[in-house]
Structures are given as structure tokens and as C-alpha cells.
Amino acid sequence: MLHHISLGVSDIDRAAAFYDAALAPLGYVRVWEDLSPDADDQAVGYGVAGGGDKLALKQRSIGQRPPGPGFHLAFAAPDRQAVAAFHAAALAHGGTDNGGPGLRAHYGPTYFAAFVIDPDGHPIEAVFNQAV
């Protein structure tokens, strides 16, 4: 259903460093960039190597704010180890813990996830939802 989603960020360099690190354990990479120092329309895109973007980050230095309560963005992880590595990398690169790696039985018996807040305040999650 979704082609891609874009998030506004206040500092594209900081956001790109965060997402480069946090998404790598999940198998996602920067697939394009349009970086021009001091330009407010700079952007980067993430997806699987060789594919198009599913997540775009766009610098909006004025008026950028995360969506309100109820919003979060969940990334599919290939396994539980990747969920844990996502969480560790996100925290090491400026993210805030919002729920460490673990089973979330209230979402389902195999729902293994970790939650963080990115440096711009966007709530994100990595999830592996398969029996091991």
C-alpha cells in the first residue's frame, strides 16, 4: 500500500548518521542522497540495497516537529539479533530508549521488538514477528 514515507528532520547530517547506524542491522541502507550544505531541502532515502527508498528524511530546520501521539514507524527486522542491534546502534547514535528488545506478548506470541525515539523525536521500532 505505501510507496514510501518522509520524515522532517532539523539536521540532516545528524539524522543521516543516526539512520545509517540504526537501520544497518536491519539490512537497510542509504539508497540515495541529495545533500547541499546549508540548503533546507536536503534529503536522504533508505531502503534495501539496489532498490528504491521506503523512508526519506528531509531537512526542515524551521517548524520541524514529529507527528503527535499515536504515530510510530516500525521497521521489519530479519531476526531477534537484528532487533537488539538496531536498539544498541540507535542509542549509541543519539536515540532515546523507549522500550528495550524483548517479546511483546500483548501484540502476539512471537512479537519481538525494540523501541527508540530518534534525535528529532520520531518514535521508531524494529520488529521481528516470527517463531524462532
UniProtKB/TrEMBL annotation:
InterPro entries: Glyas_Bleomycin-R_OHBP_Dase (IPR029068), Glyas_Fos-R_dOase_dom (IPR004360), VOC_core (IPR037523). It comes from Aminobacter ciceronei. PANTHER family: BLR7706 PROTEIN, GLYOXALASE FAMILY PROTEIN (AFU_ORTHOLOGUE AFUA_5G14830). This is Catechol 2,3-dioxygenase-like lactoylglutathione lyase family enzyme. Residues 1-129 form the VOC domain.
